[in-house]
Amino acid sequence: MNAQMELEYGRRKIRTARLILRPLTIQDLADCHALRQEEEVMKWQPQGRPDESLTETAEWLVRRMTQNDSLTYGIELQDTTTGTQSRRRVIGLVASHALDTLPTCGIFLAPKFWGRGLATEALTAWLADWEREKLRRRSAPNNSNDHDQQETTIEPAPTTSTTMWAFLNTENHRSKGLLRRCNFNYHAREDKMEAGRSICVESWVWRGTRQQDEQPCLQP
């Protein structure tokens, strides 16, 4: 699967066969609130519950839009017959944080869109974009303006030392299946406290396009 990058609001937008991934804006508040009201989605999030109000979602959205070490993209369906957005509606999110220290990602979709391979498609494209951009910044830190003015096809980078982490509840079997499909490997597990509850958390690691074949896949 190839994905194309183009600009939206001065930042990259990622287009896949069926999806558009783009940075969130404040206009996405209602869609984000609807997503964060889904019990089957939010029970696996660190807070362990749906947002209690639109204000709580708004505070979360503002944090995601303004933190320097995080990046959150909305996932939209596109009209596959025309290649355009079928409607401006966010059906899921792919997010990262601690990009300068311990890069960590997460993804979720509204339950009505489960079982169609959309999460795999979105996360695969997002990882390819993140890896390529990280390597580009290492090799050509002064060419960001030139890069941002181009539409590009995302392809696996030739070499990489990039690493992305994912942390999840050990009972979240659906997400573990997604991570396996996206070439994450199980790393470890530990008990910890989240939102006043004790849970077992697993760590999974994605080591970039060149390192995936070199790492053993441990089974939890």
Automatic annotation (TrEMBL):
Annotated spans, Disordered: 137-158
MF terms in GO: acyltransferase activity, transferring groups other than amino-acyl groups
Pfam families linked: Acetyltransf_3
Coiled coil: none
InterPro entries (alphabetical): Acyl_CoA_acyltransferase, GNAT_dom, N-acetyltransferase
Residue ranges of domain N-acetyltransferase in the record: 18-184
Xref: PANTHER family: GNAT FAMILY, PUTATIVE (AFU_ORTHOLOGUE AFUA_3G00765)-RELATED-RELATED, N-ACETYLTRANSFERASE DOMAIN-CONTAINING PROTEIN
Name of the protein: N-acetyltransferase domain-containing protein
